[in-house]
Design a protein that fits this description.
Elements (H helix, E strand, L loop, with lengths): L10 H19 L2 H26 L5 H25 L12 H23 L1
């Protein structure tokens, strides 16, 4: 006797369809400026993962160098995510008094201060 066929789609095809529709909507509705910021966020995340994996798998001999590099990645990620939320047109009601130029100036100044502390932490 043959097994009854299920009318519900498999979970892998449903998740594949969901991922496809998510990527299509992202590509259609996200500006090039936000895509560039998102690419930088992905780079920062991958850089932090590689540094952490190197520390765990190989060595953490100059531990302060690892902390400075990893802290730099995390701090820059937070600053960039803040910039993305401030320049996103969908969040205009949240940041009424912040122009994109002001948001970028805050980002640049925060990055300078962050990297000043990272450089000093390296010793």
């Amino acid at each position: 006797m043959a097994a009854p066929k299920s009318s519900a789609p498999s979970s892998s095809s449903a998740s594949s369809n969901a991922l496809h529709s998510l990527l299509k909507a992202y590509d259609e509705h996200t500006s090039a400026r936000l895509k560039l910021i998102d690419a930088f966020l992905v780079f920062l995340m991958l850089s932090g993962v590689v540094q952490f994996a190197y520390c765990v798998l190989v060595t953490n001999f100059p531990f302060n160098a690892f902390l400075a590099g990893f802290g730099s990645c995390v701090g820059q990620f937070v600053l960039t995510a803040s910039l993305r939320s401030q320049v996103n047109p969908a969040n205009k009601s949240e940041f009424k008094d912040v122009s994109p130029e002001r948001a970028f100036a805050d980002f640049a100044m925060g990055s300078i201060v962050l990297h000043f502390f990272v450089y000093n932490f390296l010793g």
